[in-house]
Amino acid sequence: MYRYIVNRVLLVIPTLVGAAALVFVLMRLIPGDICEVRLSSGGGSVDPRAVALCHAELGLDRPLILQFLDFVWGFFRLDFGTSMWSGKPVAEEIAARLPISLEIAVMATVVAIAIAVPLGTISALKQNSWIDHVVRTTAIAGIATPSFWLGIVAILAVLDISHAVFGTPWMPPIDYVPFWQDPLRNLSMVILPAVTVGYRYAAVTMRMTRSAMLEVLREDYIRTARAKGLLERLIINRHALKNALLPVVTLIGIEFAFLIGGLVVTEQVFNLNGVGRLFVLAVQNQDYTLTQALVMLTVAVFVFANLVVDLLYAWLDPRIRYG
Amino acid sequence: MVDLTPPCASAVDTAAESPRPSREGIIGFCRRQPLGTVGLVLVLVMAVAGLSAEWIAPYNPTSNDFAAMTEPPSWAHLMGTDQFGRDLFSRIVFGARTALIVGFSCAIIGGGAGLVLGVASAYFGGRLDLVLQRVMDVVMAFPLIIMALAVIAIFGSGVYNVIVAITIPLIPRCARVVRSSALAIREVPYIDAARACGFGHTRIILRHMVPNVLAPFLIMLTAFVGQAILAEASLSYLGLGVQEPTAAWGLMLQGGAEEYASTAPWIAIFPGLAIALTVFGFSLFGDALRDALDPKLRDR
């Protein structure tokens, strides 16, 4: 177990360094000179001295390898440089927007698990019944529906329903209030985006739960449990579900990182000022320092989510630890 | 000296052909897979719309008609018009073409590159495999849309850049799956037989390895088309994908759709339905294809 953990943790390093190298290379593939692009944005010719000064300021006149080491070292110190567009430190920009995105991500996960695990289990238990077909179709629809469209339709529905019920259309608030200050206001703002993002997440989890459950139900130990005359409820809860949830845990962990991708689009729909929206703004404004910091942050979340999942898996399933 | 190569070659090459699980053709597929048939129909409708957009669309998708702005659906405008008076039905039909181009280009280029890398990685093994796998790990650590956004941040938006941006993250996902199926095939005796016959690497890879990983590869390809269409729609919706005046579904949901959500909901509803139904079609078809091609999963 101890050896497995050490090996698994060490494996994080090459991936992160590789990702950093990839981002570093990508950002240097930008056609033209960042400094020239920045300085000539107002039109007119560029003073070579100003370009040289800008290069020195960004450290672009130093050898590539030193630039790269600086870049990596900056991440360890959580120093991502300053945003080229707002002039504020990147870390500050991200920190201001992280709480809302994190809250939506966590809520979406809760929503997804609460929907997916029971429905996926029922679907597997009643294989090929109408419930199964409905669940499977809903799941595929969840994968196919673009989250931004679902968001627009959800806003539309809330507007229409509130208009019909209260007489005046109601819109969720858009300025973020922390949960402990005004829980109701906070929740009313976060619930729609969370459900919108969570639907896709639930769909993927539902499919995984179903197929894992179907596989487990065919195992010999389930037949043994049935032959012993164990209550069906106990067989399902204690024997089948416990084992079927292993791959589901993996999926939930991996998909959590992908939520960030979903957030990029959903925050745009709901006009929420989160990390996803910051990402879009960074790309639109060609703010390369901000873009590279956000990409690296996403990768780091993904890599660590994977790490946690693998360690959890090893703890839950002894075959992996000793295999 | 007797020349052994020709009979040996034909025998081994025939043996390499995998036994087809079913030869019942399209009718059998439809009967066994009702949901898959629904998917196939959706995909075909979209493909026909995209291929013959000029003949189907009643209006020019990019021409404004300021006498008919935000008109509700009617016989003249089947799905209504947008805030510039453009016919939504025509834009959706032409949008199908954009989606087709992006979806298939990304899936075929990304899938093809993944197939080559995956099979080569499994066949040659050793250091090449190790290096390729680490590189794939790194690329896989970027969520699809994030990678695509990073690529667009560098090269800018537009149809071709969108295709590049979506293709790159698809490659490692394909290579990973193909490699694991190819690894199993590498151990099968007919590969040793082919090697014993003195065949070159290219021939063994193309005639013996590739045909046997085609089933998982095709299933993945249908999934990729759907994913690429969805990713393109998301990027276009963010204003970072296909640009006006090209008709694209994601683009149609941008701007006007939210603004006019309560007064002209058809602007928001129809393009979204088009995206969802198309991706839904590809998913259903892909699922059915998996069941049909992989007999082990048949009674699941």
From TrEMBL, chain A:
GO cellular-component term (any): plasma membrane
Superkingdom of source: Bacteria
Name the UniProt record assigns to this protein: Peptide ABC transporter permease
Lineage: Bacteria, Pseudomonadati, Pseudomonadota, Alphaproteobacteria, Hyphomicrobiales
UniProt similarity note: Belongs to the binding-protein-dependent transport system permease family.
Alphabetical keyword list: Cell membrane, Membrane, Transmembrane, Transmembrane helix, Transport
Topology with respect to the bilayer: Multi-pass membrane protein
Compartment list: Cell membrane
A Pfam family annotated for this UniProt entry: BPD_transp_1_N
Domain ABC transmembrane type-1: 98-313
InterPro entries assigned to the protein according to its UniProt record, in alphabetical order: BPD_transp_1_N, MetI-like, MetI-like_sf
Molecular-function GO terms, alphabetical: dipeptide transmembrane transporter activity
Annotated TM spans: 9-30, 104-125, 137-166, 186-203, 244-265, 293-316
SUPFAM superfamilies registered for this protein in UniProt: MetI-like (SSF161098)
